[in-house]
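Backbone Fold Data
Goal — fold tokens
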Amino acid sequence: MPKRDDIKKILVIGSGPIVIGQAAEFDYAGSQACTSLREEGYEVVLINSNPATIMTDSSIADRVYIEPLSLEFAKRVICKERPDAILGSLGGQTGLNLVVELAQDGILKDYGVEILGTDLQAINRAEDRELFRDLMQEIGEPVPESMIVHTVQEAVDFCADLGYPVVVRPAYTLGGTGGGFAHNEEELRRITEAGLKISPVHQCLIERSIAGYKEIEYEVMRDANDNAIVVCNMENVDPVGIHTGDSIVVAPVQTLTDQENQMLRTASLKIIRALKICGGCNVQLALDPDSFKYYVIEVNPRVSRSSALASKATGYPIAKISAKLAVGLTLDEILNPITGTSYACFEPALDYVVTKFPRFPFDKFPGADRQLGTQMKATGEVMSIGRSFEESFLKAVRSLETKTDHLEQKDMADMSDGELLSRIHERDDERIFAIAQYLRNGGDPERVVRETRMDPFFIDHLMVILALEAEAKDPAAVGNRDLLRKLKRNGFSDAWIARQWGMSEQELYELRKEAGIVPVFKMVDTCAGEFTSETPYFYSSYEEENESEVSDRKKIVVLGSGPIRIGQGVEFDYATVHCVETPVSYTHLTLPTIVG
């Protein structure tokens, strides 16, 4: 189906300022969308209030309005620009909610502005808790026993029959804001009252708790011809009960059987088709670890935080392709810009393991409540890639920039088993380090599984890391090149190994070089090497085959700024991107350029 030629000018809604639960991922998505639409010849008008983003750069859109993302200011822009269409599904929950407000106000109808991509009915059916529950029942997809409430008393009356614990989920909010687990009537009243105030439609879903189930996500794409694919599946290391934004996440799924994966994949495709979403969509499901029973948790009818992770994990540019789908193109017509040879209807393949680790702000707010639950508290995240879970996991730990180069916290070294179990039970942001220390001290892995409800697979792999630790700490192991190769292949840092072997990091580096233990670079190309790729990106690993072809051109290394945290946001992404895109005359270049 050819692209739409009946629309010329498109208004794109950004995501506003960075807040917990909505960070740089929507600047990434919005920038990709604007660029993608302009590639197709459309005039793009952007409204966003964050001056630090690439999205609000003058080169991204034909016209940029740095204005509040409010109904009043958006209406002014529409009156002035008279766009043919509006796209809000790339601006996170903020962009989506503003499009809904504009539609309800009537200005879109008055000025003939069409909602592109996911239409208003689909947005409402995914975001409105009651409509979503009704749709799931209509198509035969299971949801936990629940009730929509508009008052605290309705919630109390419902739970008198249902029992506790329950989950309170406010409608149309971001990152689980206003929700939480209620274990008794007092907690239910407090959480529901807050949730009703925060929800734009003053509505909460009171739902039977399924805490402890596996939490699985599927990133799905659909076009106007009802073609649909799964871009990526992801598994939360933490079970249901901790917001996915605060959980360690791995891709592809690690613990599901093929039957389980196909069952949840089929459900995800069925849901995106039932909602008639055109573009990217994130489906979150809960799977009983002891049976094939599952529930649909929720659907984001837009590009989400997980979409950015899935894009980088697979190399599949979800936001860019979503924008093209919004203007009528179909998956079998869009060339994948990464490979340059395959089409967007080909599902990505991963021949590596990706780990996402959340970055929390508690170093700046040490007195804050660190316990994790259904309300997201992370400010950013890091992603790492390896050939095994161990390698990917340990690379992620030391990417956090928390002065930690291994899976250990110095202040936990002297804790008793009782203290560590208490930290594990509290479910705070350092729980994974407490688990590692407890196991390091000889703690029972099965007890960790019972306490955390994590799949034994992940605990087993932590035990592999700890077994390698013990090997490295043996005085007889110092300088053992075979062990050194094994440690590097499993993601151990030079700094940690050097400390155990009583040498400097430089000395260890020289030892590695002499032994030929040096990294190679592997490709992320969306297709596991099945097709040639024009613009792949790379990750390092201690294997044999190097997939990076080094040219003889002069080069500059640009250093980025790492994960978003309090005091360092998207402004350094902005600076780094400009640095990379700036043409440089080598005849005048004397020093490397470093940003961040």
